[in-house]
Structures are given as C-alpha cells and as structure tokens.
C-alpha cells in the first residue's frame, strides 16, 4: 500500500528536479547564464553545427572569390606592354574582341548586355573574309578542354562569335612562322572572328571551369561528309 504512494512521490520529485533550471531564467543579469543553459541543451548542438557551417561557408566565400581570368599566370586585362602584342595576334587571327562587361564597347550599348548581328558583325568589327550571309548557322558549346573545328572549309567563308570562357582561336596563316595565328580571349570577352574559305581554324576551350559558346555563320550550305572539308589539320589539339 505504501509503495505506490512512494513511487508517485518519487515521480513527482523527479519531475520537479527536471524543471528546476527553468524558473531561474528571468533575473536581469542572467542573460549570459541563460545562454549557457541554452548551450547545455541537446538541440544546441544542432544550432552550433549550423553556425559553424555558416561561418565556414562565409570564410570560404571571401577567401576564395571567383577566380579572375588567369591564363598562364597572367590575369586579364593584360598589362599595357603586352597589349600591342595581343593586338597584332588578334589581327593575324582575323579576330576582334570586345568586353562583355565594360562600357562603352562595340556591341555592348547598355546594361542589358551585348547583342550583335552575325551577318554584319565581322564587317562592323573591321575584319574581312567572313560570311556576308548565313546560308548555314551552327550554335553550340565547347566544354573545358574541348576543341571544335580543326578543319578547313574550301567551300565557304565563316564568321564566328565566341564567348563565355577563356578560349583560343587558331587560324591558318601561311605567312606566319608555324603556319597559324592564335588569339586568346578571356571569359568576359566576346570575339568576332572570320575564317575565309581555304583557311583552317580551331576553337579551343582553355578554361578550367567555364563553357565556351559559339555561333558559326557560313555563306554556303556545307555537309560534313563533303569532300571540300579537310579534317584534323593540327595534330595534338
Ligand atoms: C606559359 O608561358 C611560358 C613562358 O611564357 C611558356 O613557356 C609556356 O608554354 C606557357 N604555358 C602555357 C600552358 O601556355
Ligand atoms: C567567300 O568570300 C569571297 C570574298 O568575299 C567570295 O569571293 C567567295 O565567293 C565567298 N564564298 C566562297 C565559298 O568562297
Ligand atoms: C552528305 O550528307 C547529305 C545529308 O546528310 C546527303 O544528302 C548527301 O548525299 C551526302 N553527300 C555525300 C557526298 O555523301
């Protein structure tokens, strides 16, 4: 008879023991104490874990910002001394570049971004040998490390628009040592390039992360089974 009463008494006592930390909270100088009490609770672990994850994310985000364009250790835009060298490489490769982020620029007139007409782009950019009409249009991407082209059309002139990633444009140019010219554009640049009929070209994505996008406009309808195309011009690309 005495056992159940004692048992319920014990139960009550245990219950009030568990509750004792709570009534201590409201005294004014005990904010620190209430934090300590909070941290002792099991769910505080989750709170601390989230805080830790958040701080880790913040620190990684600010210590490793998006990489600036860096090709072979030099970041874009290049130093003034290498500018004329770059300009002559662009000229030899029949390529004109413009910034996709800085005003003013040839095809970037306002904050919405750039827009151009592939038919007139080469002419407007002052380069010759491109297509003056688009009988055939290709649009696509080149993922990091990928190559497109590396072929020679003997039946069409072609204008390229390239953007999105650090990309090399190689154009056959028999007047140069090595037989080709090469221009490298940065990820925030857009290039207009022309490959006249009979000159080989290759587009190489050299970016570690970003994808190159391209549009090719050809002035005649060509098929890739056509005998007027020479493939695999440069070994090792
Ligand atoms: C980087 O530059 C050096 C010297 O300018 C050159 O020898 C090397 O081939 C370049 N590497 C790449 C990946 O372009
Ligand atoms: C390519 O451009 C040249 C020069 O503008 C033009 O004479 C020629 O008809 C064009 N098309 C082909 C397929 O060569
Ligand atoms: C090339 O392919 C096109 C369409 O796929 C076909 O109509 C044409 O006959 C082919 N030409 C040759 C030379 O095989």
From TrEMBL:
The keyword Ribosomal protein does not apply. Residues 1-28 are annotated as: Disordered. This is Uncharacterized protein. Keywords: Membrane, Transmembrane, Transmembrane helix. GO terms for cellular component: endosome; trans-Golgi network. The chain crosses the membrane at residues 43-60.
């Amino acid at each position: 008879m005495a056992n159940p009463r004692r048992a319920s008494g014990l139960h009550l006592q245990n219950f009030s023991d568990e509750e004792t930390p709570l009534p201590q909270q409201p005294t004014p100088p005990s904010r620190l104490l209430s934090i300590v009490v909070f941290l002792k609770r099991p769910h505080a672990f989750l709170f601390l874990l989230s805080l830790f994850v958040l701080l880790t994310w913040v620190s990684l985000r600010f210590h490793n910002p998006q990489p600036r364009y860096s090709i072979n250790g030099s970041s874009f835009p290049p130093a003034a001394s290498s500018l004329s060298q770059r300009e002559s490489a662009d000229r030899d490769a029949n390529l004109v570049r413009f910034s996709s982020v800085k005003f003013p620029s040839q095809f970037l007139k306002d904050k919405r971004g750039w827009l151009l007409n592939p038919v007139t782009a080469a002419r407007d950019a002052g380069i010759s040998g491109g297509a003056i009409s688009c009988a055939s249009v290709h649009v696509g991407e080149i993922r990091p490390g990928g190559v497109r082209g590396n072929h020679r059309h003997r039946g069409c002139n072609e204008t390229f628009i390239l953007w999105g990633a650090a990309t090399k444009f190689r154009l056959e140019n028999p007047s140069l040592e090595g037989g080709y010219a090469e221009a490298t554009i940065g990820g925030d640049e857009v290039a207009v390039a022309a490959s006249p009929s009979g000159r080989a070209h290759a587009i190489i994505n050299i970016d570690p992360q970003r994808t190159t996008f391209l549009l090719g406009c050809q002035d005649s309808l060509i098929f890739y089974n056509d005998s007027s195309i020479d493939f695999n011009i440069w070994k090792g690309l």
